[in-house]
């Protein structure tokens, strides 16, 4: 059994979702829209820089474009964006480790990240508030030292 993948999402699949997320955030009002734009542009630039710096070893251009809409959708504060991006990458890591363990791929194999990130963003939107709530409750119960 061979694992076959196609790399690179076309622009018609990356730019309309980003525009749609920004328009929907615009309907939400000032605060969420600004946070979403800052998160989307910030994470998009981070992915773009990593793409330029790492070349074929890093994320592809499609990943940088997809990061615009994913981060904008998750953009409710930097802690939440970082935590939810970690949750969004979890499915990709799990599948990658499974494929490595079953020897269907090698370390040098390039696997697509985009579909897993979309799945992970959905999970992060559902699980993110639960994780953030328990994280905040845990942080507020820490004993203080004199």
Brief synopsis:
The termini are far apart. The chain has 146 residues and is an all-alpha fold.
Task: Give structural notes.
- This protein is 74% helix and 0% strand.
- With 146 residues, the protein is mainly alpha-helical.
- Helix 1 packs antiparallel against helix 2, helix 1 (11-28) runs parallel beside helix 3 (61-74) and helix 2 (30-54) runs antiparallel to helix 3.
- The relative contact order is 0.13.
- Mean pLDDT is 75; it is low at 1-5.
The count of β-strands is 0
Strand content: under 5%
Q: By helix and strand content, what is the structural category?
A: mainly alpha
Q: Runs with pLDDT <50, length 5+?
A: 1-5
Oligomer: single chain
How are helices and strands ordered from N to C? HHHHH
Give a quick account of the main beta sheet: strands, pairing sense, barrel closure. none
Shape designation: globular
* Total helical segments: 5
Helix content: over 70%
N-to-C span = 61 Å
Radius of gyration using CA atoms only? 17 Å
The average pLDDT value, as a whole number, equals 75
What structural keywords apply?
globular, mainly alpha, 146 residues, disordered N terminus, single chain
Topology:
Blueprint: H1 11-28, H2 30-54, H3 61-74, H4 78-101, H5 114-140
Helix pairs in contact: 1-2, 1-3, 2-3, 3-5, 4-5
